[in-house]
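Example 218, ligand cytidine-5'-monophosphate.
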Amino acid sequence: MSRAVIVAIDGPAGSGKSTLAKRLAATTGLRFLDTGLLYRAVAARLRATGGSPLDAAAAAAAARTIEPEGLDPDALHGEGIGGDASRVAALPEVRAALLELQRRFARTPPGAVLAGRDIGTVVCPDATLKIFVTASIEERARRRFEELRARGEAPIHERVLLEVAERDRRDRERAVAPLSVAEDAVVIDTSTLDVEQSHAALEAAYAARIGSSANRTS
Ligand code: C5P
């Protein structure tokens, strides 16, 4: 049996990594996991039960009940959940509870594209291909603003910008598995690229490392 192909796609909030990772999974036939949803699901579960995202024991207990299948991206992208998710994500107990399920998902044949913050550095340091997707903070806040508007919410631009900056700071400065660029990652800056151009850049990185569409996951 051939070894699972693992593509790690990391990057900050609003960089476009999840959209691009999902699309790459579709074109390559690999499975897809947006690992941010795992942390969002922990935050949502705590909210539903009146727990605090700073309560490590409650958050770890919630994390142990999460399954990667069946998470609802739409419900987990409401305002406020991203901030709470980055708080629970800073807890070592939560990260430990979610580590093995991510590795299992990645290693299941034919392999997977995982989007997150620490996939290439911690979850799958032996990934076949590592990509770091980034964009300027202004552009990432603009995308987030449009996303919230499209959901029928009434965001305030300055507030969205502050929230993205605060989440960046929390994700980069935390002690466990902080957001950082793996030294063997291909960096793609999507600030001035549209989705098609960004996808083409990812496809090119995939083809250079793994091969053309002809021998993708075989
Ligand atoms: O990617 P998304 O914005 O949905 O992730 C929500 C939060 O989950 C991030 O701000 C980050 O704190 C956390 N996260 C993480 N590690 C991952 C994926 C997400 O810490 N692999």
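Summary: The chain has one domain: 5-209.
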